């Protein structure tokens, strides 16, 4: 069931705060500015979708929240705080207490994330015992309960199976069960429905939605699929070329978008009221290189509304009297023409 036109969760104190996050990688060709000044907050029970084309920085943003971008060639600045405690800059040992315990991540490819030579029950139980003082039997029993909670049939038997004995959708459920093993407050799901057929995609999204409601679990979902966004998100961050270009509620993104890039993403969606022979709209051009992004608006080279001021980088600012943010110099009158 779509969350469009539905109520968002009540807003309280943020559980996760990201402020001016910047991540760059030194390469032979130069410095890649993968994430450039990203800021947002996440509250308990909220589902935040981070959307954009491949290479826009959304996955790097998510991975940085759990310290997974600490390569020797990476440079990270800005603030990431969990319940008011700064976690950017923690040592690897300190981060181990954050990963799984407070913030857990589900990766795009469960077959790569799961160890192929260990039974799934052993992998879940091992993670539990690494953080909890429990016996092997207790950890195995907990693994069975977790598999049951994510909808895997016959969990008492399936706990003894290897990853290759599960379908793609079932492996993704195993990954979600493992992510929930230590009862985190925040779940990050990086393209969790990629490569799954539409029926299985719907089941995975329904599972995440149920866990969000039942556990008051805060969720960050990384996706390029606006159909996924409509099904599960409360709020949406639209990223382009390493920056957030729009930050708004789900309804605002679909019914009152403000940024030309968001207009392009929505225009490329198939619609039921279109003729079957109609061609989908395309955003012309290609995203800029993150080695040398444009000095001004990064979307300007592809934008049909570009004008002189776009040579300056627009700030991410709200409309008057609204929390809806967009990074665009167009005036509100022009933006209003695209509402609905």
Automatic annotation (TrEMBL):
Record keywords: ATP-binding, Cell membrane, Membrane, Nucleotide-binding, Transport
Location of this chain's protein in the cell: Cell membrane
GO CC aspect terms: plasma membrane
Pfam families, per database record: ABC_tran, oligo_HPY
Species of the source: Mycolicibacterium agri (Mycobacterium agri)
GO molecular function: ATP binding; ATP hydrolysis activity
SUPFAM superfamilies given in the database record: P-loop containing nucleoside triphosphate hydrolases
Topological relation to the membrane, as annotated: Peripheral membrane protein
A GO BP entry: peptide transport
Residue ranges of every copy of the ABC transporter domain listed in the record: 16-266
CDD domains: ABC_NikE_OppD_transporters
Protein name, UniProt field: ABC transporter ATP-binding protein
Family label: Belongs to the ABC transporter superfamily.
